[in-house]
Design a protein that fits this description.
Blueprint: H1 2-23, H2 29-49, H3 55-78, H4 84-103
Helix pairs in contact: 1-2, 1-3, 3-4
C-alpha cells in the first residue's frame, strides 16, 4: 500500500506545482486554495508512505514522479518546448523512478 500512497503523493506534487503557475504568486484565490490543499494532500500521502518505505527512496520517487508529471503537464498545458533531449532526460527520470521501486527494501 505504501507504493500506492507514494504515487498519489507524487501526482499531487505535480498538481500543486502546476497550481503555483495558475495561482500567480498566490494572488488568485481559488488556484491558491487548490495549490495549498494539493500540497497538504501530497505531504500527507508521503508521510504515510515513509512509515514503511526508506525515506531516501520515498523522497526520491516522490520528487521524481512530481517532476516527470509536471514537465509533461507543462508541455500539454503551457505549450512548453519539447525536443529530443528533453524527452531523453524525462525517460531517464522515469527509468530511475522504476529502478528505485524495484530495488527498494519494501
Amino acid at each position: 500500500m505504501a507504493w500506492v500512497y507514494l504515487i498519489i503523493a507524487g501526482l499531487f506534487e505535480a498538481v500543486w506545482a502546476i497550481g503555483l503557475k495558475y495561482a500567480e504568486g498566490f494572488t488568485k484565490l481559488w488556484p491558491s486554495v487548490i495549490t495549498i490543499v494539493a500540497m497538504a494532500v501530497s505531504l500527507y500521502f508521503l508521510a504515510l508512505a515513509i512509515k514503511t518505505l526508506p525515506v531516501g527512496t520515498a523522497y526520491a520517487v516522490w520528487t521524481g514522479i512530481g517532476a516527470f508529471t509536471t514537465a509533461i503537464l507543462g508541455v500539454v498545458l503551457f505549450s512548453e518546448p519539447i525536443h529530443f533531449s528533453r524527452i531523453f532526460f524525462l525517460l531517464l527520470l522515469l527509468v530511475s523512478i522504476i529502478g528505485l521501486k524495484f530495488t527498494a527494501v519494501n
